Sequence to fold (293 residues):
Amino acid sequence: MPLLIRFLALAGILALPAMLPAQEQSFVSNGVRIHFVTKGSGMPIVLVHGRNGSIDTWMSNGVFQELARDHHVIALDCRAHGTSGRPHDPAQYGREMALDIVRLLDHLQIFQAHVIGYSMGAIITSQLLTLHPERCVSAVLLAGAGRLEWDETEERFFEQMAREEEQFGFSPSLTKRLAPPGTPDLTKEEIAQRSAVALANPKNDSKAIAALTRAARDQVITPAKAAAVKVPTLGIVGSEDPSMLRQLKKLKEYRPAMPLIVIDGAKHGDVSKRPEFIAEVRKFIAQVESAGQ
Fold:
């Protein structure tokens, strides 16, 4: 490190943790290599991205860099994503994805952390709260509440998703479910175009994503388990994300004390980029940490 930077940091003129580059690392979690990055110092925060995302999700929207100004931020590539391992066996997904966070904390010798999950990451985080609540200082569920419902209709829907992911590299059915009200269905031409891009992406392993989808049942949370969670939790969702808004309202029925923030005009795909999101996260984390002192 240049002596001038070290001097300015020691003098309090520069915030050294925010200046240092993120440190890329990996570890093996029950046989699957998990890639992660860390930056900053202070109370740890784990960031868990959504389906077809990666660590880059948090880098591109600036959330990683913003929180690393005063926290020890850890972002991981979930199984089947980024540069982490991509097993094709559904048994390697489900609750294993929540347990990856526990193993990551163990690897870093960290007992507790704030956990922020977006979409698929919120599903993972919500299950983590039921499996190992003692490892979570708090949780933020962004555009996802966890798998609170499961029946034959959901079983058929997820199998259809998996088949579409194998065929197209993405799921038109999921795209439709997450679209704002009134959005027209994708045309055959649009599906073909998106499929060509998805299947050509070397980071998109369609068989691994399909295996992840087929493990969805293993992430289901019963109402009793959802209601029993005592970890401070914040729900955030866009007003133009009806499916996830409905699910988070359902979760709030089980946990009335959970604040639920609805960001006006935000869609499922852009809610993490809205300034209201990071503002609400910072306020919530500050309140949790203040209460814990």
Residues 15-151+220-292 form a domain with the Rossmann fold fold (CATH 3.40.50.1820). Confidence is low (pLDDT under 50) at residues 1-18.
